[in-house]
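Aim 2, interim progress. The first record below pairs a target sequence with its C-alpha cells.
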Amino acid sequence: MHEIKPGVQYVGAFDWNRRNFDSMMQTPDGVTYNSYLIKGETATALIDTVEPRFVEGLLKDLEGVRRLDYIVIQHTEQDHTGALPVLLNKYPEAKIVCVAKAQTLLQYWFDLPTDRYMIVKDGDSIDLGGKTLTFYAMPWVHWADTMVSYLKEDRILFTCDLFGAHIAQNELFAGDDERVITAAKQYYGVIMAPYRNFITKHLERIAAMEVDLIAPSHGPLHDQPAKVIAAYREWTSDATRNLVLIPYVTMHDSTRLMVEMLVEELTKRGVTALPLDMATPDTNRLAVGFIDAKAIVWASPVVMAGAHPNVLYAALFANYLKPKAKVMAVIGSMGWGSKMVEQLTGIIGDPKVEYLEPVIGKGIPREKEREALALLAESISQKF
C-alpha cells in the first residue's frame, strides 16, 4: 500500500514476470494491475481490483479497511475485476459502481445479484465526505463499457486503460522517465489504436478538466499529465513521420536482398526505412511502426502460392490496428505462380490505401529487380 495523497492509496499488484499480455503484446518489463483506495469522511471507495492471481495481496492491503462502500468498476476485463467476487463477499455492504454496459458484461462472468449494482450515467457523482468522485463514460477506450473517474478535491483522474503502460517498477510516478512514454506508446499502438477517433474526442473532454495527476490501470502514474496527453494527441492525429515500414520474411535470402536494395534506394532519396524481420513477430515494434509510418511495404517470399504466414499475420494485425499509412506496396520473390499480391492487398480493408506497383522477382534479385525497386522508391518518395 502506497499513499498517493492524503486519503488516496495505491493498492495494486506488480506482475514482475509476465512477458505477454492478451496473447498479442510483449511485456518485457512486466505488468501492473492498478487499484486505488479512496477514504472519505463518510464512505470508502475502491477503484478497480486486480488480476485473479493477485487477490490475496489486495486483501492484505485492505486488512485495515472495515467497511467498503463502493467498488468502482471502470472496465470489466479480468485484470480489472479479478477480485470482485471475493470483495463482494468480504464487504456485503459494497455496491458495484459502473455504467449499464459494464453491468451487462459483468453478469456474463459472475452472475451477481442485481441489488449489488449502482448504475451511473455520464456526469454522476458520489460524495464520500470531503472527497467527490465524478464518473464520465468514455466508451471504446478500449471497450464499450469504459468510464473514467475524477476525484475533484485532489484533481486526480483515474483513466482506466487510457494512458496505460505495461511497465512494472517500484517508482510509483512516471516523472521524466522516457521509458514510460515508450511503453505507453506500445500500449496505445497494440490496445488503443483501432479507436483513435473515439480517443480524440475523449481527449477534448479531458482537456477541459483540472488534472494534476493521471492514474491509469496499468503502469506508473503520470504526475506530469500534460506530457502523456500531448503524446496521445500526436499518436491519435493523422501526422506521420518520414518513414517506410517494411515487415518482411525471408527464406532463402532473396526477399532479404530485395529489402536491402529498397532500403538503399529509399535512403538515396532521403526517406527513412525500418525493416522488421517477422520471423519472430514483435507486435510492439510493429504497432509503433503503424503509428509512425507514412508508407508500408510488405515483403515476402511465395509460400504455397501465397505470402509467408508471418507476413500475412502482420497484414491482418495492420487491418485490425488501422495504421495511418495510406501508401502501400508488395515486394518479394517467387519460383512460379503466385497470388501473393492479391492476397496481401485484399487483407487491408481501408479503401483509402493506394497500392503502388508491386515488385516480384524470380529467384535471386538481379539488375531488373533493382531497377524496379528504384522506381518503387521513387514513387514512394514522391508521396512524402
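The second target in this work package is listed in the same format:
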Amino acid sequence: MDRLFELQGEFWTAAVETLYMVGLTLLIGGTAGLLLGVVLYTTRPGSLLSNGAIYNVVNVVINFFRPIPFIIFIAAVQPLSRLVCVAPRMTEASLAPLLPILASELNVKRVEVATSADALVTLEAKANYRALGKKFGKQTPLAAEAVSQFTSEHLRRFEQGEELSVTVDGDTHVITPEDLTIVRRASGALVVQEEHGYFAAIDPAMTRELRQEGMARELISRVQRMRKDAGLAVSDRIRLVIRGDAEAVEAATTHREWIASEVLATDVRLGDAREGEGTTLARQRVDLDGIRADLALTKDE
C-alpha cells in the first residue's frame, strides 16, 4: 500500500499523458473523418450534390484502405511513393479533386489513375468441382484441370460476357460463372486491393529518400514529446542537438529546416556539435528501426 502512495504522482502523470495522446488522436482522426464524411454525405444518392460515381469511389477506397495502415504502418510514420487507382466509368478529371485527399490521408507522394487493372493483377480460375461434376461426371478432375489453365485474358473476356467452354474426351460444355471462381493476384511488387471492380495498388518499395523522411518525421515526434515532458509552453523556442548513427544524422541534415520549423528550434546542431550555452532540459536516446539517435534540447532564452 505504501508503494501505491509513492507511485501516485507517476500514476496521475501517466493518466494525463494517455488522455493527451487519445485526445490528439481523436482530434486528427475526427478532422480527417469529418472531411471524408462530408464528401460521402453530400454525394450520396438523394443528397443535394448527389454523385453516385464519386460516392462509390470514396466509399470503396476508404473501406479497403482502412486496414492497410495497420499492416504496413503507412499512415503513421513512413511515407510511400505512389498509389495507383482504377475507378470504372470515371475519368481522371472527375477524380482529380479527390486525389489530394487520398495522398494526404494515406501518406503517399503521388496518386495515379489507371484506366484498367490489367497491369495490376493477374486472374486465375479456381474450379467448382460440385458444379462441374453435374456436367462432366467422372471426367470432372480433367475438366477442373482445363479450367485452371484459362489465362488472364480468357478470364477477363469471360467477365465481360464472352463464352468459354471446356472439352474432355469429346464432351464439350459451356462454362458458367457457377463453374469457377476467379481469383485476383497482385502482379509485380505492388500491394493491391479490389472491391466491386475498384482497384487500389500501393508501391511498398522503400527508397533512401522515403526512409530519410520517415526518420525525420519520427525525430519530430520524439522531440515534441520531449518538449512536453520538459514542461515547455507551446510557443517556447528551443535549441536542438541531434547525434547518433550516420544514417540518422544524414536524415536530420536533409530535413533540417523542416525539423526546426516543426519543433520551434532556433538552432539545430548535428553530429559532434556542442550543445551550446544553457542548461540542457532533456536528453533521450531513440531507436529508429535499428538506427540510434541521441537528442538533447535546451530552451532558447
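Residues 70-75 have pLDDT under 50 and may be disordered. This observation will shape the mutagenesis plan for the next reporting period.
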